[in-house]
Design a protein that fits this description.
11 helices, elongated, RNA polymerase sigma factor, WH-like_DNA-bd_sf
Amino acid sequence: MTDSNFHPTHWTLVLRARGEGEGAIAALSELCAAYYAPVVAFLRRDGRQEDAARETAHAFFESLLASGVGAPDPGRGRFRNYLLGALKHFLSKQRDASRAGKRGNGVEHVPLLDEAARGAPDDTLAFDREWAHTLITRSLAALEAEQAGKAEIFATLKPWLDGGVQHSQADAARSLGISETAVKVAIHRLRVRFRELIRSEIAATVSDPAEAADELRHLIAVANAG
């Protein structure tokens, strides 16, 4: 992937528009909706019960969408890093307001935080792991939608994509009434397309095509660590 064909996707659109304008707001809203689960996972890790975590997550996203992203540097930043930094900033403000005995009802632009501001790896592992799982789930759902006209074939071969294999490719071939060679070819094609969709999901959350490969390696590592 090169700069010439790296189209402005969700996060790049937000950055290039400095978080302003209907298109950027819609893109930010869609990203927030897509990656709601990692925020909840982080809040659960931070000691909240499920209902409290979801309530805090809703408050956080409402604040973020109301304030926008401020004026981040369009030349750098991954949405994963930004979102976690913004979440920590939001929680810090909540704690400060609680200690001061005041309601935190002000809206503030949240600056783009760089990698150093993310905290120790132990603090972010649950967030990053859930992020990876969410990305994979979204990619798999997109692939399933593409295969809607071949629902039976996809349902039979899906275990070779999500790690749920409990029968052989020969069994799958007999079930589908096709040759085992045809099953192998179909699985290969699905895997290739699945990887393309994963890369596309990642591309929507980074500001530079050069970051996509590093992001993929990181998410594979944290997913396998779970």
